TrEMBL record:
Keywords from the UniProt entry: Copper, Copper transport, Ion transport, Membrane, Transmembrane, Transmembrane helix, Transport
Cell location: Late endosome membrane; Membrane
UniProt similarity note: Belongs to the copper transporter (Ctr) (TC 1.A.56) family. SLC31A subfamily.
Superkingdom to which the source organism belongs: Eukaryota
Transmembrane segments: 20-41, 122-145
A molecular function GO annotation: copper ion transmembrane transporter activity
Any GO CC annotation of this UniProt entry: late endosome membrane
Principal location listed in the UniProt entry: membrane
Record-given protein name: Copper transport protein
InterPro entries, sorted: Cop_transporter (IPR007274)
Organism encoding this protein: Oryzias latipes
Protein topology in the membrane: Multi-pass membrane protein
PANTHER family reported for this sequence: PROTEIN SLC31A2, SOLUTE CARRIER FAMILY 31 COPPER TRANSPORTERS
Length: 154
């Protein structure tokens, strides 16, 4: 299989059968929005975890051979905020939070696999829609995470 630039493709389900340029534009926009929502969902899960007095474990510790500049760059990167979270709350609120986190995780996994299957259609336009949606989602949502974390600390 190779990537192709064509306006005829079937995405995810039999009823999502695209045969026209207008349908392709609409499909690319929909896939772009799904990818954007995927990135926002990741940030939402991190924020939800941190809103319950979470203690973050270090995301990654660089090996001793890595220079201190690289280590400081890793500490400030947005991906470190996706570190495993340990909650120190008890009672019904922690159970409800766990149920919500589980539901959001399932939604994130399903959405991720759906986006992967869209890319596996080998349509260049759909692929670009997924990539642009991820870029836009990351660009818009991760600065919000920093703002939410600084708001919580005040």
């Amino acid at each position: 299989m190779t990537f192709g630039v064509f306006s005829s493709v079937t995405l995810l389900f039999d009823f999502w059968d695209v045969h026209s340029p207008a349908g392709m534009v609409l499909s690319v926009l929909l896939v772009l929005l799904l990818a954007l929502f995927y990135e926002v969902l990741k940030v939402w899960r991190v924020w939800l975890s941190g809103s319950q007095l979470a203690v973050r474990a270090p995301a990654c510790t660089p090996p001793p051979s890595v220079h201190s500049e690289s280590a400081s760059m890793l500490e400030g990167s947005p991906e470190t905020s996706l570190a495993p979270v340990e909650l120190h709350t008890s009672g019904p609120n922690s159970w409800l939070l766990h149920v919500i986190q589980t539901a959001l995780h399932v939604l994130q996994v399903v959405l991720g696999y759906m986006l992967m299957l869209c890319v596996m259609s080998y349509n260049t336009w759909i692929f670009l829609g997924v990539v642009l949606g991820s870029v836009l989602g990351y660009f818009l949502s991760f600065p919000l995470l920093d703002q939410m974390q600084s708001f919580r600390l005040v």
